[in-house]
Fold:
Amino acid sequence: MPLLEPKPDSLRLGTARSAAVDRVPDTGAGGTPEPLRTELIDLLGPEKVRCKISDLVKYASDASPYRFVPQAVVLPEDVSDISAVMAYARANRREVVFRAAGTSLNGQAQGEDILVDVRRHFTGIEVLDDGAQARISPGTTVMRANATLARYGRVLGPDPASAIACTVGGVVANNASGMTAGTTRNSYRTLSSLTFVLPSGTVVDTAGPEADAMLERAEPGLCAGLLAIKAEIESDAGLTARIRAKYQIKNTNGYRLDAFLDGSTPVEILRGLMVGSEGTFGFISEVVLDTLPLDRKVSSALLFFPSLTAAASAVPRFNDAGALAVELMDGNTLRASVSVQGVPADWADLPRETAALLVEFRAPDEAGQERYERAAAAVVETLQLVAPVDSVNNEFTRDPKVISGYWKARKAFVTAVGGSRPAGTTLITEDFAVPPSRLAEACEDLLRLQSEHGFEAAVAGHAAHGNLHFLLAFDASKQSDVDRYAAFMDGFCRMTVHRYDGSLKAEHATGRNLAPFLEMEWGPKATELMWRTKQVIDPDGVLAPRIVLDRDPLAHLRGLKTIPEVELIADPCIECGFCEPTCPSHDLTTTPRQRIVLRREMKRQPDGSPVEEELLSAYGYDAVDTCAGDSVCKIACPVGIDTGAMMKDFRHRRHSPREERVAALTAKNFKTVETSARLAVAAADRISDRLLEGVTGLARKAIRPDLVPEWLREIPGAAVRGMPGTSRTGASAVYYPACVNRIFGGPQDDDVISLQQSVVDVSARAGKPVWIPDDVAGTCCSTIWHSKGYDDGNVTMANRMVEAAWFWTDGGRLPLVVDASSCTLGIEHEVVPYLTDANRELHGRLTVIDSVVWAAEELLPKLTIRRTTGTAVLHPTCSMQHLGDVEQLLKVAEAVADEVVVPDDAGCCGFAGDRGMLHKELTESATAKEAAEVNSRSYDAHLSANRMCEIGMDRATGRQYYSIMIELDRATRP
Structure:
């Protein structure tokens, strides 16, 4: 064992605990039981099977109120692996559930036996017919697909609020629709073809010219069964009419029986049935979707009404005016949205009864936009709008930033309102649809029903389509709360079906919580046809039992998850999964959601249980060590949960007093440390990489991998000794070269001058000279200590930095320009909690500017571009995302290059200061997709704005990344 290996006990929850009703029992501590473990490993190989109890627990939760712990998790790499798993399940009477993003709100992504993670290896998009169609793998997120399609002026029809995380496979399998899809732009209507694997292992490509003949040969019984059901439906005029009527409004409850009416052959029928089948009929391995025009002329307004019913009554008028989207938000939703960055703070003061409509028109050209705006204005004139707080203006706008803010608030309905629920409560999200003309009535009935059962009202929805969403929060550990939820559900379903003939699920699919009520909506004959369809396609019941069809009238009460309170920062988490695609470690160890899920399971366990011990043992590496700590999860999380900060706190807890003293001493003597580091890097230039790798490898084994960096061949040579000559007199700004740029040099090409010289020269060229203080050595943005949780060292350096900056900038008179984005973020934001009161006041009067922003806003307007590079690929750093500086990076890049590309898969590189040297596997995993995209073609320049991120990308791509400031200097040099 390494000398300084931290003890797992340091992460143990300190409160006295008793066993929760839904805890993993002690018998589960060993993970996947035998012989299942050995048989799956023999079938697929150990790298594709996850067996530890920590692996099973982290997959046990999704965005729903349910929790089921799988027996095993497998990560197939291709269709043959999928077929092998299903063949194994059939032969051994096992059950299989497919999981992609885990954003499902009704438990569709949870299984009690074999859970198949299809997100990791089934990704990618191929654009067809100049964007008219797209061939997409099921693990590709909707946002990622739309990023590629945007270059062609196209977009997918379905646009769920969870587009940042939900996958195309999940969208098709649930027939999810979203804000604008309605009944005409959803998956069912825009699906051209798909390829899927049946439970038998038969692979069907519905676009294949011989698809029906091949299916008939492989599955004659299935074909006959489907055609028999089709004939039975078509022979019943009343049933046929009922099916057609049910899909006049949004409906995802049960199977798409209209597939039997729309398809004439077994393959065509299956093509329709797979949409909305929730993984119960087969695995969708690929889809071809028809795309829609991306109308870029957008006009939107957020209009406020005195009541929910008043807002609902206005919806038909906007529909008639041609609005693409009309979204409804009640007062509770609006007030809860203040937790979302960018939402006006005074929304917290909105009256309880207030409601709002987010109305959007989209047109392909200016003339169309003006027509829509005139029609919208005519509608607004007829309305009695209110302006209860100062930020409300009730006006249409074309400003993309304002419109984006409106949508951010709307899309955060589930997460923002859910995040503000009482700690320890479970969140239920329901959606239903009624005829749009009866929306106002339905709102009144829903509010009354919620009040009768003691639930706080929170309502939003796609009002244009008569589709409402609402939330319920209750404590699943209390039987009285569960009974209250059960009574509400019974009343809600009866109201929706009997009063409105509505859809119990408009777009979230049946799932576990509506399966018992399926027959109430569809009637016995149609429901039995659904059971027969399942039997024809999956006679052995292998796939996702109890997710769509369940004869147990209390099935929706089984598996409700408790939400134990853990760390305060994590308690608002509703386990939605929005954070997961952005997390650098999501394909390596754990995601932010999973880090929280694991903590909650520890809290469910009694003190010292075998399960708790196993979870603690794995948590150090899986959660704490391999977290980049760059908090990109906070950006993606609608309520701003910073799991990275939680992991840094855990790192602090694991430090021994000796480690803290050493770290503080390093901060106090950083000038000496900095000089020594630069000399060491310089000396390393004369030593072979192989020797350095060996020495650091031995040191890591002896001391601790999380303390000793590993030597990487991509580490550049030492920075030039000494700074360029500058003068304080006449300086427009103070230039602060980050310590990383004082230690490590830039590109080794002979014609490339140092970053510091580039910043000095290009600033002077623009008439904005900068001054480098003589005493920058020994100062730092404090990220070195902050990222590792060394609080004492962080306090020392944070205060030293601010005091020095105050002196350099003449009390804040001059801006402080910083040449590394992570250091800009550190000085601007991350040091603040560690400052003394006096220094916090000084900090508030400083102006800290990233060098890229300095270039874009102050230098570019006064520079002459004399030469450009041909093509440039950018790596926007996660710090730039936090700072909101990506737009400025693009602006500078577009000035110095003829073509600028930001990879669709660009994300946090995971290098995170030196974490990529402590755990190089983190950067390798985090950059894999971006690197593949970068290396798919050649570029003349590879640009970024942070030296350590550039090193990480060098390692990932084999290309040489460097600061965009160097390229700007080169482009403007006389």
About this structure: The longest strand covers residues 297-305. The mean pLDDT is 93. The two ends are 59 Å apart (CA to CA). The chain is about 45% helix and 10% strand.
